[in-house]
Amino acid sequence: MGLLISFLLTVSTFSLARSSSHDGWSQFRGNPNLTGVAASPIDSSAAIVDGRVFLGTFSGDLLALDLADGSVLWKYFVGEAGIGESSPAVSHGLVYIGDLAGVVHAVDVETGKAVWKFETLGEIKSSPVIVEDKLLIGSYDEHVYCLDAKSGKLLWKLQSNGFIHSTPAVSQGVAYITGCDSILRAVRIEDGKEVHQIDSGSYTAASPAIVGDLAYYGTFDNEVLAVDLAQQAIAWRYLHPERQFPFYSSAAVVDGRIVLGGRDKLVHCLDATTGKALWTFPTGARVDSSPAVSGERVYIGSNDGRLYALSLEAGEKLWEFNAGAPFSASPAIAEGRLVIGSQDGVVYCFGKKQ
To answer: What domains can you pick out in the chain, each with its CATH number?
Structure first.
């Protein structure tokens, strides 16, 4: 049975901050630093580039939609295993995504035709990151891979000691990779050599967000960490004093604040320097969705079926949208629109009031 996609343009009195025309949301978390600043069931988050929306579905389709009206421009079928949380990246005229059979696909952005494929030995939930002519991605076969983005040729791979669920974050020629072995690895992109590693103390599924010399991410030991990459040490740890649940959501970092969701049903905002809690916002279910920030607003989904718009300053609810199905995917923001998919297979687009 095919996946039914409905694309809704919701006009809101709370407008999104419009990016400049050359800006897009071309990969998971919007940029290689994974800061999240300004998608059958859908856990894959959208990429938005040049008036098009790209996202994957559990039924196995990589979709290209028109951002203006949601019409399907093309479908590319990856296979019966489907697409999980891997989110597309767009570069070099190609759309890249991983699937649950462990295959990385490169698809022509205009035609939806396969250009190349690369097989790993485990399912892929990590999202591809493009750095110049290289593609980085993790696999459940316990490796991170670096491929030639144009041909799919293997350039190098690095062994870890556990599944790699997270997406690599990139800063100054180094990829930072968290994993199920509790280790944050710093890997030189040029040749795949490990520069150093830091023990997080716990299994980590969230992707690190990097600002300056600090990496921020949550763990399954119910903590949020700030890691000093220069000192190769934990700068601070945050643990909620009462509600101690894992963090699966990846953080957004902006203006000295860290925002992320928790499986304690809360959205948390922390001081980036000290780790002190600035505010929390309660939802009705766990929050696996990773937030996106546009202007002074935070947008995040919850498994309670709602998309929330919150003030960055105080965590006050500005508006909510009830989809009636969980939002575990993360919002993508570009060209004055916000796009997110729900677990009942509906893709929602929110736009500026005219």
So the answer is: 10-352 (2.130.10.10)
